[in-house]
Please model this.
Amino acid sequence: MPPLDEYLAAQHDAFERDLFELLRIESISAKSDHRAEIGRAAQWVADHLKGLGLAVDLVETPGNPIVYAESPAVPGAPTVLVYGHYDVQPVEPLAEWLSPPFEPTKRDGNVYARGATDDKGQMLTHVKSAEAWLRSVGRLPVRLKFVIEGEEEVGSGNLAPYLAANRERLACDVVVISDTSQFAPGQPAITYGLRGIACFELRLVGPKQDLHSGTFGGAVMNPAVAMCQMLAALRDADGRVTTPGFYDDVVPLTPDERRKFAALPFDEGQFQRQIGASGLAGEAGFTTLERRWARPTFDINGLWSGYQGEGFKTVLPARAGAKLSFRLVPAQDPKKIAVALERQLKALCPPGIEMELVDMHGAAAVVVPLDSPWVAAASRAIERAFGRAPVFMREGGSIPIVAIFRELLGVDTLLLGWGLDDDNTHSPNEKFCLADFHRGIAASAYLWEELAASQDRATAQKPASSAAPVGGQKPARAQKTV
Ligand code: BES
Ligand code: MN
Ligand code: MN
Model:
């Protein structure tokens, strides 16, 4: 057995022990009282990368720390930037977890814990593959740069300024992210598109305090009623968003892409059973995969007002609130949508109600080209590790920084997801299949080799002067100075 594969086999249990250690850290970025745990997770990742002999920088930001690490340059080989996140989503409702969210538990080949698949487990596959190369072969076939942040789940607000200020340090040929899913169990995928997002909190205030709904009801506008009317007006009977101009910039699906989606082995009945809903719904005229991957949406993520406790309270609440999000597709602009939404909501807001719309965060959608040598290299690496060639798909979730990597570093991202659709990300009982964790480590280890080989191929085919920037529209690699 080659030393690399031997190392992967020998360290099987140690890889899991390290993953479980990271999963015990309660690094919830949405909650300010978890700042210390965020710090511990950042330190854990930094220490781990330091232990591999990489040059590591634990970068403080106005928010959560960014872990940066790099290996030495490899002459003639590409530089690959690995991005991941150590922060996780809140765990509520706690009562629905079968084992505690921060006590990683093995059940039927999976590890159950918050962050298991999103993204600690997936992110760690690249750290462990680097370890495998360094401890078996003694060197990496490509130069690796790691950017592991702690604010992905809250919009990556402090990462973009860090990228902008460190463009030369972060210069690379391609970005690799494992923070998505396979198409199905046993069917790996390369994701070439992600939706964008625009998130808001809408706050409505009526009377100065809660009122008796008998004494005052009918004569005073109820903010909960106003909220229902306003939110209901944001989409029409066909499931389309009514915000003026919302669809103006949408790049329509091409007939070719629709055919390719339709050719994927997607079973609608099984999908419905998996989510446990009594029926499916969405924008008229589109299939379920089109609705999930390539059409924009409006959703309510949280909604509150009035009395929620036991029994009944005849109250006319003083306030109502809602958390709203829109998933976006190329080339919608979250900022433009924020402006149009505020104008629309102000017009819908009835007399007697004060409204405030808080713009939480936004990110643009991305679609990456499939005809690059990087994609071909990733396909080979995945096929070697998973025993099956990947299919190409889009996903409905968002990774805010991907669009910014293209904008600021001029590079495309390989989205190589080892998760599964039923991993319960952001939900109770989040899990990650441990066999996929190990296959992910192997795929990542082979990826460094395949990317190095693809650079050799590109160099062999082209005159020396134009060899480096495969893909075209990027700053010259010569700018790299660290
Ligand atoms: N890993 C997900 C993104 C994702 C989910 C990609 C599903 C593909 C399929 C990421 O951690 C995430 O949850 N992103 C947030 C971004 C938001 C908080 C700005 C999302 O999509 O809701
Ligand atoms: Mn994630
Ligand atoms: Mn997430």
The pocket of manganese (II) ion (ligand 3) is lined by residues 89, 118, 153, 425-426 (CB under 6 Å). The CA atoms of residues 58 and 67 lie 5 Å apart. The mean pLDDT is 94.
